[in-house]
Amino acid sequence: xxxxxxxxxxxxxxxxxxxxxxxxxxxxxxxxxxxxxxxxxxxxxxxxxxxxxxxxxxxxxxxxxxxxxxxxxxxxxxxxxxxxxxxxxxxxxxxxxxxxxxxxxxxxxxxxxxxxxxxxxx
Length: 122
Description:
Blueprint: H1 2-8, H2 15-22, H3 32-39, H4 57-63, H5 65-75, H6 78-87, H7 96-109, H8 114-120
Helix pairs in contact: 2-3, 4-5
């Protein structure tokens, strides 16, 4: 049961979204519904950070297939990737090659993620 609850809470939005909702970045762990309630609106494709964590059927079900596909298109933009990675403050992956390595490592760990495999063209 706890695994299912945690699985549906795994998502990452930009720091600015946390700031808009709670006044600071390190607000803690909130469900998508709680975050949207604090924001006073539904999350959109542009709100999400570039991370494999966001490539889930749970997130697709929440934001809808059209918005989810918009998010995946944003994720293909190299500058969007780099901006998201720099926002995390991780200089090791805040480069195009670093982000590709990051995703390849994710792929090795999550070979059954069909959304991610489609995104990577594999």
